[in-house]
């Protein structure tokens, strides 16, 4: 059975890491005899906006809805398009319209990569951030009054629904229950954000009643970020609202040495719509065009996509391949963010060769 993948490189380094993501997928598809058909799209990026005055064509939903998955790079090119326009015109539309309400972001210290935290070794940092992905602080509810005057008022509402909160909590509890440590940490701020966050805590407490085997703790987001740095080994599954999850899933990988390796899965668990797989990192205008972006975040996202599509063995083969290349630690192969002198292509090619076997 052919599985159709929509490929959208997006902006900046998305265009550099995507070919390496595809190279690994093509190698693994050949090795495991998986029939993947890639179709490339030039929208959901700021170049498209420059030509058309919008990030995507009006029929983007129709064009993409029947794909088995979407493989995305990165979005944002603030010199051309303000960040909130590019993000709301592309990635956030995918997440919302395709009801990809889970954003699953593994955070793992990989072999060969030095954590900036003292004395941490692989195995010490190995947890998931489960980020609510369709509502919360990322809401389009609000407005401005008296714009441009001294009386200017700006309001943006946080939107949390019982449906939206319970479904992400259920996913996170299920994940925690499936893991050996069976531990779930909730990110809150119920001392300061006095309506939505105490309610979030109540929903966590209610859901925990269904999972007697899962031990649950919670931290206010400020001390939680400190504990990510001081005690990353405490965490197993961390569940968070949209904004808190976004922040934690950049900080977590930074504690593992580089955000360049971090993958993510934007999942519609029911399979009604395609899920979307993208590195956690953005378009990185500061290094775009230099050919030095780390492709592992894109490659690992491809592995998550394969697992989602039912190819666990192939997904594991990709992870084993990049772990082997990192363990070898040839500086001529590795990218500068992980102390190498290589390029996006040298690292991508070494991983693809390993995948091929
Ligand atoms: N590949 C991820 C990406 O391009 N991220 C850009 C960004 O700003 N994302 C914000 C978010 O994930 O909410």
TrEMBL record:
Enzyme Commission number(s): 1.1.1.83
Please provide the record's keywords in A-Z order.
Manganese, Metal-binding, NAD, Oxidoreductase
Q: This protein is called what?
A: D-malate dehydrogenase (decarboxylating)
Record carries keyword Cytoplasm:
no
Q: Which cofactor does it need?
A: Mn(2+); Mg(2+)
UniProt-listed NCBIfam families: TTC
Family annotation (PANTHER family): D-MALATE DEHYDROGENASE [DECARBOXYLATING]
| UniProt cross-references to Pfam families, sorted A to Z | Iso_dh (PF00180)
Source species of the chain: Billgrantia antri
What family, per the record? Belongs to the isocitrate and isopropylmalate dehydrogenases family.
Enzyme category, top tier: oxidoreductase
Q: Lineage, please?
A: Bacteria, Pseudomonadati, Pseudomonadota, Gammaproteobacteria, Oceanospirillales
């Amino acid at each position: 059975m052919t599985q159709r993948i929509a490929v959208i490189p997006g902006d900046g380094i998305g265009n550099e890491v995507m070919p390496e993501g595809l190279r690994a997928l093509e190698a693994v598809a050949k090795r495991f005899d998986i029939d993947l058909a890639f179709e490339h799209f030039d929208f959901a990026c700021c170049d498209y906006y420059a030509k058309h005055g919008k990030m995507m064509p009006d029929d983007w939903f129709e064009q993409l809805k029947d794909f088995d998955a979407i493989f995305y790079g990165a979005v944002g090119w603030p010199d051309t398009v303000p960040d909130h326009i590019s993000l709301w015109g592309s990635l956030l539309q995918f997440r919302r319209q395709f009801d990809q309400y889970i954003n699953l972001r593994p955070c793992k210290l990989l072999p060969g990569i030095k954590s900036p935290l003292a004395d941490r070794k692989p195995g010490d940092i190995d947890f998931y951030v489960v980020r609510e992905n369709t509502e919360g602080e990322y809401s389009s509810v609000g407005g401005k009054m008296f714009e441009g005057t001294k009386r200017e008022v700006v309001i943006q509402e946080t939107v949390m629904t019982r449906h939206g909160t319970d479904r992400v909590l259920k996913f996170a509890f299920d994940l925690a229950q499936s893991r050996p440590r069976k531990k779930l940490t909730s990110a809150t701020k119920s001392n300061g954000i006095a309506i939505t966050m105490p309610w979030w805590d109540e929903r966590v407490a209610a859901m925990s009643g269904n999972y007697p085997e899962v031990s649950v703790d919670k931290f206010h987001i400020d001390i939680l970020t400190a504990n990510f740095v001081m005690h990353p080994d405490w965490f197993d599954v961390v569940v968070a609202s949209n904004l808190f999850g976004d922040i934690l899933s950049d900080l977590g990988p930074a504690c593992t040495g580089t955000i360049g390796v971090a993958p993510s899965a934007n999942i519609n668990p029911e399979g009604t719509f395609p899920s979307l797989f993208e590195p956690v990192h953005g378009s990185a205008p500061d290094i775009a065009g230099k050919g030095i972006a780390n492709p592992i975040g894109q490659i690992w996202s491809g592995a998550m996509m394969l697992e989602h599509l039912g190819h666990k063995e192939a997904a594991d083969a990709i992870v084993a391949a990049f772990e082997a290349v990192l363990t070898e630690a040839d500086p001529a192969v590795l990218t500068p963010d992980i102390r190498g002198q290589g390029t996006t292509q040298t690292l991508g090619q070494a991983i693809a060769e390993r995948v091929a076997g």
